[in-house]
Each structure stands twice: as C-alpha cells, then as structure tokens.
Amino acid sequence: MWAFWRRVQYGTGYITFLSLVSLSVYFVFYYTPATCFDLAQNGDEGGVDCGGGCTRICAFTVTPPKVVWVKSFEIQPGQYNAVAYIENQNVVAGTPVLDYVFRLYDGAGLITERAGKTVLPANSTYPVFEGRVDTDGRVPTETTLEIRNADMWLPSIIGREQFKTVDLQLVEAGTRPKLNVKIENTDLKEAQSVEVVATIFDQSGIPLTSSQTYIDLFAGRSQKDIVFTWPNPIAKTVRSCAVPTDVVIAIDLSGSMNNDGNNPPEPVTSVLEAASAFASQLRTDDRVSVVTFATKATLNNQLTNNVTSVANAIKQLKIDPKEELGNTNPGDALILAKGELSSTRQNPDARKVVVLLTDGLATAPEKEPEEYAKVQADIVKSEDITVYTIGLGKSVNMDFLRTLASGSNLAYAAPTTGTLGSIYKNITDSICEDGAARIDVIPKVTRSFAPLE
C-alpha cells in the first residue's frame, strides 16, 4: 500500500506542477485583465465598458435629456441667435459631448440648419446657443432642435453651483444694450473655456432675447465682470418695468375737440383729464413730454421726469381760438415726437413711446395729409419708437390710425371719453409688466465630469 500512495503523491505533484506551469504561461502570454476600455462586457460591468467599477455610466440607465424650449431671436435683419434650454433630469449622469442640430423654418420650408456640440452636466437645465445664424433675408417662424444620442455619460462632479451671479445690470436698453454681470467662481480650482449664456424672460416665463460670451480662464475663488451685448435696442422687447420709459403724449387740439359744447368744453376737457392721469401714473425713472397738434404741431413740454408738473400742465391746455376752423396734422406731431425722443434729454436706458390721440381725420398739410402722416409714422417706428394711437368718437378713421400704430393691436378706438381711462391703463400695462424681468446667467464648463477610469 505504501508504494501505491507514493505513486499517487508523485502523480499529484507532477499534475500540480504542470498546471502551475500552464497557468503561468497563460497569464504571462495570453491573459488580458478586464478593463473599462476593452470593448467587452466583463468583470462586474453592467454593460460594455460601463457600470459596475467603471466610471462611465451605461446609457440605457440614463433618462434622455428633454428640450424645454427652442427659439430664434433676431439680432439684425437676416441674422438670428438660435437658443434652446435642455433639461437633464439625471441626478448624477451628464455628458461631455452632446451633438445637436438647430433647424430654422418659414412658410416655404427649411431655411437653414446649424449643427454643434455642447456639454450637459447633471441635474439641471442648460442653454444651447448658436449665434449669428444667417437666414439669407428670410424670417423664421419656427425653430427646432434635434438632440443626438450621447455616446458617453459620466458622473458630474461640479454643477451650476460652482458659479454664482453676484450682480447684474441692464443698461442702454434703448440704444446699444449691455448686460453687465459680476460672476463668482466658488470652487477652489480654476475653470477654463467657460461658456456663459444670458437669457431674458418676461414675467410669464417667455424668453425674449439671449446672448453669449466666454471666459478663457477663471481663477478659483475669484470674481469676474463680464458683458453681454446686443447690436439693436431691446427695450421694446423687454417689457419689464425695470426698464424705464420715455413717453411723448400727442394730443389733438383742433377745433373739433370743442364740438360737444358744454362748459367746460367737451370732449377736450375729458381728454386732457385722461391724458393728465396717464402722465401722473408714470414712474419716477420715466420721462414724459407733451406735443399738441392742430393745423401745426407744438412741443408744449420737453422730456422730464417731473411727471407731476407735466400732468398738471396738461390740464391747463386749451384750444387756440384760431384753430376753431383749422385742420388736423398728426404727421407734424409725429415729427416733433421723434425729435424729442432723439434729443439729449432722452434716456438711453429707456424704451421710447408715442401715444397719439385724435378725434377726426387728418386734414393737414393740404396735399395727401394721411399719406404724409403715414410716412412720418414709418420714420418714427424705424427709430425703434413704439407708436400707440387712440381714435376718439365716431368720425375717426381707425384704419388710418392702425397704419400709424406699431401694430394693429396698439390702435385703440374710444367711442366716448368715458373709455379713455381704461385705454390709457391698457397702454400703461402694455408698455411694461409689473416686477423685474427674469434674467438667467448660466455658465457651462467641460471640467464638470469625473475622469475616465
């Protein structure tokens, strides 16, 4: 028996030795350990090179990003900024490369498209911005954004909390708008190639305009002053009451404004009361001027922020007896209004508005008075001035007043003087919305993600 067990021991030892040699050869020459970059699902991975011990997150576990809104904003004729907000609902997962395509359409079909790439950190909403998209003179009525499937999802180690907006101020909204922003990098580490997008919304949350800038190097625990600009005025677009308004009130004082008789005369007395109340409701940052017109136009008050004195002065206006049989010249009134809103007294931070009231037809100057007024109105509107018109009584030509106004919805018919108060209130509400507009300033950086391991 001892010889048998000796043979068993020798055999076992020999087999063990051969196994060890074979394993050594295999591990030295043939074995490749599982990694997160071997294009195979092995080890504890949840998918190919993702999940488990890999940094990369498996795409099938990620909630796809969602387009919140997409819109094109005109920056000058034939050029638009295409902007969208994308929501990433994943608490951890973000992607350093998200491919997208903007497409702009009008009634005739596709105008143009613009493709790009962006980063999308986790657990927030981020803007996608493509600037100066050329439309070859066509006006887009619809803008879409296609998001391509991201190839890589990684844990976001830094989100929007890295940056904080310390201060912002919108200036020169009526001329060459600038949004001055002070932004802080709250992280200890520097940030490079920071894309920052500013978007202005109205009180209903509707986006009005957007701009983009870059910070090449942003040191940790520091602040930077950045500026967003727009080539054209945005005061009309940004209807927030935080933007002041310069208003010219143009009032018809032709002879027909006495036609209802009474003592004091009507409808002029009620008209002046309503215009005075409108002026008194303007805010301390607003400025107001008064133009009256009959056969000719007169600048009664220059632009001033003393709205109380102007409101009182409006009540003292009277019809010149010489105008009892005179004419009505709204065209000259628009000329004077434009001149005042182009003067040194005009606030460059303010929107510009004309509110013109008349009770009759345009009868001066003698040759084609309505065409003359339309030409002047077009010139006024080309200067980024919003024109409101009010037609008082039954003899007024509302079709004519609609052509003078900046939009048909900005031409108001007042059958009687009793409706003037509500009309002026509608104009006040149309000029600005209560409260400040919402302004989003959102930075994005590529160093938001964990390194691949």
**What's the total number of strands?**
19
Counted up, domains total: 3
For the record, what CATH class of the largest domain applies?
Answer: Alpha Beta
Architecture per CATH nomenclature, i.e. the level-2 architecture of the largest domain:
3-Layer(aba) Sandwich
The DSSP helix count reads: 7
Strand order of the largest sheet: 15-14-13-16-17-18
Average pLDDT, to the nearest integer? 90
| CATH homologous superfamily designation of the largest domain | von Willebrand factor, type A domain
Classification by helices and strands? alpha+beta
CATH topology of the largest domain: Rossmann fold
Radius of gyration: 35 Å
Q: List the helices and strands in order.
A: HEEEEEEEEEEEEEHEEHHEHEHEHE
Shape: elongated
Give the low-confidence spans: none
The level of helicity is 10-25%
Our measurement of the CA-to-CA distance between the termini, rounded to an integer number of angstroms, reads: 58 Å
- Beta percentage is 35-45%
* Quaternary structure classification: single chain
Main sheet properties: 6 strands, mixed
How would you sum up this structure, described in words?
The structure is a single chain. The protein has 453 residues and is of the alpha+beta class. It folds into three domains: 96 residues, Immunoglobulin-like (Sandwich); 88 residues, Immunoglobulins (Immunoglobulin-like, Sandwich); 187 residues, Rossmann fold, CATH 3.40.50. It is 21% helix and 36% strand. The chain is built from seven helices and 19 strands. The strands form five sheets. It has a six-stranded mixed beta sheet, with helices on both faces. Strands 3, 4, 6 and 7 form a four-stranded antiparallel beta sheet that branches. Helix 2 runs antiparallel to helix 3, helix 2 packs parallel to helix 7 and helix 4 runs parallel beside helix 5. The radius of gyration is 35 Å and the shape is elongated. The two termini are 58 Å apart. The relative contact order is 0.12. The model has no long low-confidence stretch (mean pLDDT 90).
